[in-house]
Structure formats: C-alpha cells, structure tokens
Write a structure and sequence with these properties.
Layout lengths: L11 H4 L3 H26 L5 H12 L2 H11 L3 H26 L3 H18 L10 H21 L10 H9 L14 H38 L51 E6 L5 E4 H6 L3 E8 L10 E10 H8 L7 E6 L4 E5 H5 L6 E6 L2 E2 L9 E3 L13 E7 L22 E6 L3 E2 L2 E10 L5 E8 L5 E2 L1 E2 L9 E9 L2 E11 L21 E7 L1
Parallel strand pairs: 1-10, 12-19
Antiparallel strand pairs: 1-2, 3-4, 4-7, 5-6, 5-10, 7-8, 7-9, 11-13, 13-17, 14-15, 14-18, 16-17, 18-19
Helix pairs in contact: 2-5, 2-7, 2-9, 3-6, 5-6, 6-7, 7-9
The structure holds the ligand Nc1nc2c(c(=O)[nH]1)N[C@H]1C(S)=C(S)[C@@H](COP(=O)(O)O)O[C@H]1N2 and molybdenum atom (MO).
The site of molybdenum atom has 7 residues, from loops.
Length: about 550
C-alpha cells in the first residue's frame, strides 16, 4: 500500500485561479446580496428593496432628456430597460469586485460594501422611508461580503487575509488545503464549486421568498389605495365642537388611524385582496350565504363612532382608541341568514385563523350599531387594522368582538365553541368595564389652580360623571366634554388647587346607569383590569 494521507503537490496550473472564477465569485456575491436585501425588504417594507429604491432614485434623478429618450425609445418597457441596465452595471461591478478581492483583498469587499451603503442611503432618502429602510441593504452587504470571501478564499487559500491564526483554523475547519511551502495554496475547486452552488441556491430561495412575501402586499396596497368607499346611507352625526376640550397633552376625541393602538396575533399582517375576499355566514342558520366584496359595497352603509378597547389595557394604559367606522350592520347579515333557536354565539374567524366569540343577542340588538366595517376615519381600513373588512361592536373588548381580516361568521353556542383567547385564560364574555384615565398633568405642574384632564369610557352605557381628587381629599366633580353618544369615550377636565410639593391625583368615573368605577384592583386577565388611575405630580 503506497497511499498516504499527503495530498499530491499542486501543479503550477492549479495554483492560479482563473479570472473567470474570480469574476463569477463577485457576481454570485452581488446576486446573494441583492436577493437577501430583497427578502429582508419584503418582510419589513417592500419599498426598501435596494434595487427598487435605487431604481426609483435613478428615475427621480434622471435628467429630463434622458427620461424623454427612454420613454420615446422604450415606451412602457422603460422600467424593464432601467432594471436591465442596472442589472448589467451591477453585474460588471460585481465581477470587478471579485477580481479585486482575489488580487488585492479586501478591496473587492470594500467595493461591494460601498455600493451597498449607497443603496442604504438611497433607500433612507426615499420620500416614504423610515430609518428601517437601511436594513435590507446593510444585511445584503453582510451576505455579499461573506460569499465573496468564502469563494475567493477557495480560489487562493494563501491570499486569504485576516488574523495570522485564521487561515490555519480555516484549514482545519473548512478543509481548505494547506498552504505550500512558498505560501501559495492550490485552488480548492471542489470547495469553490460548493460555495458557488450554495450562493446560487441562496439567491434563488431568497428571491422566491421575497416574491411570495411581497407580491401580495403590493397588490393589496394598490387595491386599498384605489378603493373608493361608498357614501354612507346613514352618516354619523357630526362631532360636536365641544367633544374636544383642546387641552395640550389630552388625548384627542377621535384617534387618527396612524396613532390607533394595534393588537393582534399576526406575525405578518394578512394581505387580502378585496377581489378575493368574501364573508361566509353559516352555522346554526336556516339560510347560510356568502357575501362577496362587490355585494358588500352595494349594501347601504352606516357610519358610527365607536371607542375600541383592549382587554389587556392596564389601568391608565393606552390600548384604547376612538374612530369613525363605516360599515354594514352585522345584525342585518345575521337576520338574512335566519339564526335557529338555541344559538347564542357568533364565532367570527379571520383570514389568519384568529377567532372571537360574540353573544348573538348583542349582534342582533337593533339598538346597538355593530358593524362589519370597511372604513376607518373616512379611509379604507388600514391593512394592519383589518383591511378589507373587520368587526366593530360597541361595548365589548376587542378580543371577543373586533375580528380583523374577518372571513366568516359562524352562528353557534358558547357551549359548543370558544374564541381564540378563551382556552388561553381569558373570559368567554368580555363586556367593557367603566374606566377613566388622567392624561394631564404629566409629571409636573406649577402651583395654583392646576388643570387636570383625561378620558373616561363605559361603551354603550355612556359616562354619567367623572370625579378627581388630590391626596385622598374630597372628590371634585369634573366637567364632561360633549360626545356623539354612549359608544365613545368622553373627555373631562377639572381644576384642582395644588400647593408646591408632591401630590397624588386620582380619578373615578360613574357610568350613565350610576355604577361607580371600583377602587378594587384587578389584573387584566381574565376579563379586564379594574381600579382607579392614580398619578404623582410634582408641583413647583
Ligand atoms: N384577526 C385578528 N383580529 C383581532 C385580533 C387578532 O389577534 N387577530 N385581536 C383583537 C384584539 S385583542 C383587539 S383589542 C382588537 C384590536 O384592534 P386594532 O388592532 O385595530 O386596534 O382587534 C381584535 N381583532
Ligand atoms: Mo385586545
């Protein structure tokens, strides 16, 4: 047996990596970088894609004559030509980076990093961008440089830069052939092919993933933007001027959609094209039916202000908001399906599987405007708030009523079915509890007559009275702002004489039926927090 564990000495031909291999390493590194950036962008913000933002910036920056030329020569294919041109330029640059990295490391990596940073800055400078938009390009740089270095190290192991100990460690760990006596290693063909293959595979997977994740989002965004909401048959009464006390720091009466709290179990917001949306109404009913988007839009719509609250809202918390909803009464949909005797619950289900169990009598109550809503504050529902359709029920916490991205209503019983949160330790029924919150002052105030203000709510019953007190002194009745009705919160304000020093302020509300908000503290689970909101204020 003459075999040894020694590798045969590298032939001179094997020592020099061909230029095409280095160029290929560069192109693959660039491809991985862009594809990974695309994938990250698809998850955090489709517009933040290095290619998309870069292309948009090129279009914005292109001189008039170039634009005219492009449109004249390429017509509606101008975007494709732009992307193709960008692709060629980037590929040539990436090939150059590969050659550079082989001959003059780390300058190839530096070139790729520089292009990536230009991409990141370009993305952040887009009109609708946030700082987050830099992330796809930065992650892309990381992926590209990793591939570039792994690949070129296999083309010229001896050249691989880094700490003195690093190449040796790599030899052990990654099977890179040992360096020859002259310090030049043989090209590791197999290793290079493995890296190249992995890079190509990663590129394809990342691009497919990005497409799956963002194609829907782009289409849905476009569908939402082009949607024209129907004019309500029953418009909401206009908000009285006195509903907003206009005190600095006091929560506005109507919450802008952008500031509205968001709670859901969706890791990624469901993207539903209204054209493919429908609502199935079935279960214990005589006449089940399916409502299409066009059928829904043709129904007479109502507008109604409702304050939505989360059962997880702590005393003094901000998981609550008030909006103008546009929709069709859920009760009317249920009547059409003709619920059978014995049914007492409607299990609403969302596109992503969330469910809520709502008492049937609440939804059928003609005196309560429960809506299958498509509009919020005059706009189509924001995607994160349930586009294209959600439920809004006055007087119940969101977890038992306010299903977003709703796709079915099943008439059933509390005995037979339960909503998503019920087996997870939350009550099957979730009527909103009377609560109040101090918004002003925040932390400090100046001595004298101090304005104390906030909001109070007892949806569907209404607020009858709000009282505040300082340092457990006598209760002072607050002035109540106007409201459109009992289904929303109400602002309130009072003036308390406060001397210099630390003070404790407390608030308690009484609902329109005379029920006083309890001082007894209860945690949010299983059916909503109780207790008085109490704040400290230092008066100087
Ligand atoms: N599909 C779906 N709908 C949902 C939820 C959810 O997790 N998934 N959470 C509910 C809860 S707990 C609340 S408080 C409200 C919050 O609605 P918002 O995010 O529009 O404020 O949505 C409800 N609807
Ligand atoms: Mo909630």
């Amino acid at each position: 047996m003459t075999r040894t564990t020694e590798r045969p000495a590298a032939s001179p031909a094997a020592r020099r990596a061909p230029a095409w291999a280095a160029a290929l390493a560069g192109v693959l590194a660039g491809a991985v970088g862009l594809a990974v950036a695309e994938l990250v962008a698809a998850v955090i913000a489709p517009g933040a894609s290095t290619v998309f933002a870069g292309g948009a910036a090129v279009i914005d920056a292109a001189p008039r004559w170039l634009k005219d030329f492009a449109v004249e020569w390429f017509g509606t294919a101008d975007k494709a030509v732009l992307l193709g041109t960008m692709g060629v330029v980037l590929a040539v640059g990436a090939a150059a980076a590969g050659l550079l990295e082989l001959r003059r490391p780390p300058w190839g990596a530096v070139l790729i990093g520089a292009v990536g940073i230009v991409g990141a800055v370009t993305a952040v400078l887009r009109p609708d961008a946030t700082a987050l938009w830099a992330v796809p390009s930065l992650v892309g740089i990381g992926a590209a440089v990793l591939v570039l270095r792994l690949a070129t190290q296999r083309l010229a192991p001896a050249w691989s830069s880094g700490g003195a100990a690093e190449p040796a460690r790599r030899s052990d760990a990654a099977g890179v052939p040992d360096r020859g006596a002259d310090g030049a290693g043989a090209m590791d063909r197999r290793g290079f092919l493995v890296v190249a293959g992995a890079a190509a595979g990663t590129t394809v997977l990342a691009l497919v993933g990005a497409r799956l994740l963002s194609a829907g989002a782009t289409a849905v965004k476009a569908a939402r933007e082009t949607l024209r909401l129907p004019v309500p048959r029953t418009p909401a009464p206009s908000v009285p001027a006195g509903a907003d006390l206009r005190i600095a720091g006091l929560t506005p009466y109507v919450t802008p959609a952008a500031d509205f709290y968001r709670i859901d179990t969706a890791l990624r917001v469901p993207q539903i094209d209204p054209a493919h949306w429908s609502l199935e109404v079935h279960g214990l009913v005589d006449e089940p039916f399916t409502l299409s988007w066009d059928e829904l839009l043709a129904l007479p719509m109502q507008e109604h202000h409702v304050t939505l609250a989360c059962v997880s809202n702590e005393v003094g918390g901000d998981l609550i908001g008030n909006a103008l909803w546009l929709g069709y009464p859920i009760g009317a949909l249920l009547e059409r399906a003709k619920p059978r005797a014995g049914a007492d619950m409607v299990l609403s289900r969302s596109h992503d599987g969330f469910t809520a169990g709502t008492p049937l009598e609440v939804l059928r109550d003609p005196a309560r405007t429960s809506l299958l809503a498509i509009g919020m504050n005059g706009e189509p529902l924001p995607v994160a708030h349930g586009f294209p359709a959600r439920l809004v029920v006055p007087g119940l916490y969101g977890y038992v009523s306010a299903t977003k991205w709703v796709t079915s209503l099943t008439v059933t019983t509390f005995a037979a079915d339960q909503g998503y949160w019920t087996p997870r330790g939350w009550s099957a029924r979730g009527p909103v509890k009377v609560q109040s919150r101090i918004d002003v002052p925040r932390g400090s105030a100046s001595a004298g007559s101090v304005t104390v203000a906030g909001v109070a709510w007892a949806q569907h019953t209404g607020i009858g009275k709000v009282e505040v007190r300082a340092d457990s002194g006598p209760w002072v009745q607050a002035e109540l702002a106007d409201t459109v009705g009992p289904d929303t919160w109400r602002q309130w304000r009072a003036s308390l004489p406060l001397a210099r020093g630390e003070h404790t302020l407390e608030v308690r509300a009484t609902d329109a039926n005379g029920q006083v908000q309890t001082e007894a503290e209860a945690p949010v689970a299983p059916d909503g927090a109780t207790g008085w909101h109490r704040i400290s204020v230092s008066v100087s």
